[in-house]
Amino acid sequence: MNNSRKQRLQVVLLVIVAGALASGLIIYMLGQNANYFYTPSQIARGEAPGGVFLRAGGMVVEGSLVRDMDSLALEFKVTDGSAVLVVQHTGILPDLFDEGEAAIAAGKIDKNLVLQATEVLAKHDENYMPPEVKESMSEAYINKRKNAAGTQ
Amino acid sequence: MTVELGHIALIFALCLAVIQAIVPMIGSFSGHTNWMRVGHSMAAGQFVFVALSFACLTTAFIQDDFSVAYVANNSNTLLPLQFKISAVWGAHEGSLLLWALILSGWSTAVALCSGKLPLVLSARVLSVLGAISVGFALFLLLTSNPFERILPIPPVEGGDLNPLLQDFGLIVHPPMLYMGYVGFSVPFAFAIAALIGGQFDSAWARWSRPWINVAWVFLTIGISLGSWWAYYELGWGGWWFWDPVENASFMPWLAGTALMHSISATEKRGVFRSWTLLLAILTFSLSLLGTFLVRSGVLTSVHAFASDPERGIFILIFLSIVVGGSLLLFALRGPTMRSATSYSGWSRETMLLINNVFLVSSMAMILIGTLYPLLADVLDMGKISVGPPYFNFFFVPLMSGLMVCLGFAGFTRWKSTEGRFLLRKGLVPSIVSLIMALTLPMVMVEKLSWSTYSLTAVVILLLVFWVVTMSLEDLWLKSRGKLSSLSGLSGSYWGMLIAHIGLAVCALGVGLSTAYDVQKDLRMAPGDSTDLGGYQFQFIDVERVEGPNFIAYRGNVEVRSGDVFVVSLSPEKRSYKSGGQVMTEADIDGQLNRDLYVSLGEPLGDQAWAIRFQVKPFVRCIWLGGLLIGLGGLLAALDKRYRRRRLKKSVNVKSEGLAFE
Q1: What is the pLDDT of residue A144?
Q2: Which of A100, A145, B605, B627 has its CA 20 to 30 A from that of B436?
Q3: Contact at CB, B386 and A33, closer than 8 angstroms
């Protein structure tokens, strides 16, 4: 093997090793930082892992928003039509957050299946519903219909 | 009538674009000079018709013609005039029309400035630009016609432009961004023309460079404006979210930056030829991808794509023709291009190569992080969002590495540079930077302790001072310490220097505002006060005020530093009349070294409000740096050597031309 070939081989090997390392790292980091979305029903069934950062959402239940009187701590419930999820959060809610509207919260599920949210997101304009919420709502609706048909 | 006129003008523009795409290309092969010249006039004609079409749509907005579906959905009578105009590009259809307008504008500019180009080349460039125009005009007319009427009964009042978009930043931001996106179609067209003709030499590179620079300047300013807009208009003090929409504009910027650097080596030394071509194709492809990602609705939901299959399929076909076609051409023609010369060691070529590795890896990492959730959704792997930690994990080290290398930019020489020479030049700056980086974080905090001594700040200051001192040392050496010789330095050199210092200023803003940012969300009753970052914020009260198309609660917050009154801030909570939307309008007191940022949250009863207080040191440097980077690009584009007489150049073309076959 002459010198220039040797050099070229070294470069190729270096590129392969670097490429493999980079893709390994990217896959690992994507796995670490990909936040999955769960519906209240899934969480109620215990399908969501505890202590893992995730997103959950649905329609905010009317009259469920309760605020602490001395701090910014608050609690509200979201539903996908069949199950209800309690969300606890400390902070300022987004402008378009409202009861009876869609919202998504990001945080971790605790032992009592309550979502300890570090962030609450609401829709960006009055006509928009987060696609995840829309889908879970319609799924829940279909399931309800199925159950109703089954009991008859 | 105006609306129909606009529609017809668009159809005319499409016809001219078809001619512009086909005739000059045929002429360039058959050798008919008349045919080749057709493209130039077609480009100008097309611009006139698209501009007419755009003017008609704007008129429909100004006259509140709600029989036009697009106007009815995005404007109403209460909207102030300037926002009626900016609403034209506030949504999908209109922004595509703006795209087409800018594309025809760039084509016309190429046609007008092509005097010094060989006719064959300029004909092919215009033909490629024409073909892109055809694609966009077809897309507009077939799937996203902004001139569609709601008949027979038009609504009396329109919907609303999202209040977030009712802002000066949003009047300027999209056109700037689009000038950048679309501007990269010119180097793309140059690359395709070069691939078709097989002539890819230094002259080619020199002709493309100013276009790349100008497009890049617009994109830089556009992104900075977008970030600035997010900072003051979204109301909560964030300036970059690694949101897919932001990533969509950042990816072409990174690829374009890589292109700017690699093409300089191609021009001066004839190296990286095929890589430069590939980058030109990549940059424009990413611009297209960005436009479609943001405007097609695929980001809000992959299923929006399916709900409007025509649009989705058109986009996929268009993208695959542009990307696939140009890559195929590249695969056929690219490998035959050999580098004319060699280089070794720590030469400028090597440094530019390293620069490209950093920039392109950042771009690839962002691309993967942005597309992965879409892919996962299509493959039914669950609904995922990729968080900022992923992006920061890769981006911060990559950019730090880039900045370390960037320090050597001015010192390296073409062909070969001795490593020892670079080490010697780097000695003083590295000592100065190290001292500054270690000491400054001690003065920047109120009470010094191990916990307040910020390592982030040390690292960022080290990098920033490194880049700045190295740049200044280079300037000192190049001017031999005499002020009089400063004017002798070229525009390209000044451009490089200012852009590099701009990057350092931007990094300073990012680093220090991250390291020393303090924030408090509090429940405040009138009269309450709080301490934050050396300031006392006192909440006085909230009053009700009326704006042109909104009603607002306006808070009143007084800020003191010790006993000194600093400023009175009045953040607002607005409720818009037509859509009933609520919006937070923060109030900011800005200085170069710190921003005081107060936003009004929600009423909590008993006249108490939730309020967010923030002190953000040096946050302004982020956008100041962005402006400096843009200014640098502009200076480089205005370099005298791009405007030399054509006589000399036409000789150069022959002598530098690379045998292709």
Answers
A1: 62
A2: B627
A3: yes
Neighbours of B378 (CB within 10 A): 12
Chain B closest-CA separation from residue A92 CA (Å): 6
Closest Cα in chain B, distance from residue A38 (Å): 8
- Decide if B30 touches A, using CB distance below 8 A: no
Counting as low any pLDDT under 50, the low residues of chain B are 645-661
For the cut 60, the answer to whether the pLDDT of residue A34 exceeds it is yes
pLDDT of residue B215: 97
**Complex confidence, ipTM:** 0.81
Q: What is the pLDDT of residue B130?
A: 97
- Residue B614 backbone class (left: φ over 0; alpha: ψ -120 to 50; beta: rest): beta
Tokens coding B46: 């097309």
Q: What was the pLDDT predicted at A141? A: 61
Distance CA B305, CA B145 (A): 17
Dihedral (CA of B447, B450, B456, B459) sign: positive
Find the residue in A nearest to B382 (Cα): A36
Across the interface, do A26 and B368 touch by the CB < 8 Å criterion? yes
Strand partners, B597: B588, B614
Alpha-carbon distance A27 to A15, whole Å?
18
Q: Omega of the bond prior to B152 within 30 degrees of 0, cis? A: yes
Answer whether residue A127 shows pLDDT above 70.
no
Buried b (16+ CB within 10 A) or exposed e, B184-210: bbbbbbbbbbbbbbebbbbbbbbbbbb
Q: What are phi and psi of B158, to 5 degrees?
A: -85, 175
CB-based contacts of B96: which residues, under 8 Å, 6+ apart?
Answer: B136, B139, B140, B144, B146, B291, B295
Which pLDDT value is given to residue B431?
A: 95
Contact A126 B581 (CB under 8 A): yes
| Confidence at residue B304, expressed as pLDDT on a 0 to 100 scale | 52
CB contact under 8 A, B521 and A92: yes
Specify whether the CB–CB gap between B626 and B502 falls below 8 A.
Answer: yes
